[in-house]
Amino acid sequence: MTRPATASAVSQARPLPSPKESRVLDTDVGAIIGALTLVVVGLWSRHGGVAALGDSAAKTYTSLAQLTGLLCSEAGILGLILVTRTPLVERRYGLDRMFNWHRLLGEAMAIFLALHIAFSIAAWAIPDGTMNAIQSLTGKEPYMALTTVGSVIVLIVTISSLKWFRNKLSYEMWYFVHLTAYFGLAASFSHQIVLGTDFADDALARGFWVGIHLALVVWLIWSRWGRLVVAVARPLRVTAVTHEAQGVTSVVLSGTHLRKAKALGGQFYLVRQMVKGRWWQTNPFSLSAQPTNAGLRFTVKSRGESSNAFTNIALGTRVIVEGPYGVCTPDVVNSEKVLLVAGGVGIGPVVSFLEQLGSEHEPIILYRATSEKEVAHINELEALATARNGKVHTLVGPRATLKVADPFSPEVLLKVVPDLAQRAVIVAGPESMVKAVQRGAKAAGVPVENIHAERAWW
Amino acid sequence: MVNVSQKPTLGRQIFPAVALTVVGVGFISLLDNPAGGVVSLEGATGAVVPSSVAANTTLAPSPTSSIIVPTEVPTTLAPVPTLAVEGAGSCDGDVVTGPTAMFKWGSLQLQATFTKKNVLCSVTVLNYPNEKDKSARINQSALPVYNREAVEAGSAQIAVVSGATDSWRAYTAGLQAILDAHPA
User: Fold this and answer.
1) Residue A263 to residues A21, A203, A236, B106: CA-CA distances in angstroms?
2) pLDDT tens digits, residue range A270-307?
3) Is omega for the bond preceding A324 within 30 degrees of 0, making it cis?
4) Residue A352 falls within a domain, yes or no?
5) Residues 59 to 118 of B: which have CB under 8 A from any A CB?
6) Same domain, A446 and A341
7) Chain B residues touching A203 at Cβ < 8 A
8) Which residues of B touch A46 (CB under 8 A)?
9) Engineered SS bond to A324: which of A267, B53, B62, B78, CB 3.0-4.6 Å?
């Protein structure tokens, strides 16, 4: 489906204001993680955890089971804080990094859980024998049957999210398995309060532990699911679908709700197409034009069922967007000149970023595409660059046909951009290209804090 | 949002860490500390029953350590182990009833029997916290261990059983009161 964009709507558009900045610092995040760890380990130690370590084998195992159990919970708590997608963290680090940390915390949680189970069985096996210990810990003791189910769910969720496994599962399968993690965590909670000594015997510790979990549940509902409810209440509609290049389509979403929206070029939204069979699923799509009250434009490459459906979406379809997310925005640039590097569909965020830059940045754009047919927004790009005292360089063709082995080696980069070291570098594109540019720019003398990367979200 | 032009002050960077550490340490220090729990002893150590009387009232011919099970407790309680303590001699000395040790989970009271040579010979638990299932379960498994260890050690210097630290505290305090009142 190919339709021209409604130019009239765009011409009267007023750019959306910037989202509020986060005041959170790296040191704040460190302080919170450090304090939580301090309290968890201190609680364990205060209840005799350290003293028990040198004691009999049973006591040592019990103590280690308690410590690993507590650390497992801590990883879970931190992982769930990331699920809230709180702007405090998101506006500072970006959703992609939050997803990454969530995954790492999930893996840490699974390791602590495995250790916790192993130490618990070892501790109970000393007086009772292994089989009796397993029986007690999977059903006989209060709440342990529920906890066993919860632990199995948590382990399945973690395993299903390992890269190797994740690639073998369909998104639907993985998503619904992942949703059961909420139940798994809830099911495991009761045994923490009833069994063991850390919380069962100490009212203050129990109050703290229950309180922190209740607060987390409230925060999750408020922030994660509340945000979804708000997004559902403010749907947008597809107002333009334009074929841009082979397999590349731009879609404009508009609606009255945009009047109150805030967003910046370079950001992305989680887009939910309200179409039969797709409404439960979101895709991250990057803005490919400065976001305005007239509309949000996304440039999407069709490369999966879902993005394919989006490139063929009918005009007028209801679309729910959550966001904006992402921290690779013009705010990262101070007064220095700018080099923008786009790879493939990474051109989208680069265009929207460029549109919000002033001419003092004299932007140079490197646009890498594997084929002439896949080059999108090139006229727009050149017009924007020219208006800002900038230049566009394109590098088109499959890698094997290029004259240089690595188009982003420091030598090549410096030849094209002699003042590279004085520039801020913005990269959007496939993972491998982002890495190559980061490496090359660093070697060419660009300080690491001046290199900003954003994954190409379609 | 990374904005190099607004570099936060050192104070702003350090303050949250310091504040949260202080709060965390303060919280931990308020938590229950098994090594420093409070046991209050109520009631005087009972009169020393002379050995001649004790010999008449002690029915058990061999050294026995038993838990007296209150009537309201279900009959599924663990059987009381009988202890034979080698080398302790026969329990035909004084019988001393200790004070009631009040602690977090209730009260614990001990009665000790000595040999003629004033060596601790057996310990009987007169009452212990059993209102909650969990308390009853913990004490039924730990108290016989404490009884045995006390008789073996001949003193209140006994090791704690994991999970029964509070009972250990009350037990050692109660037993020490008996030993203090009955010098060897």
Assistant:
1) 11, 46, 15, 62
2) 999 999 888 888 889 999 999 999 999 999 998 888 88
3) yes
4) yes
5) 104
6) yes
7) 32
8) 28-29, 31-33
9) A267
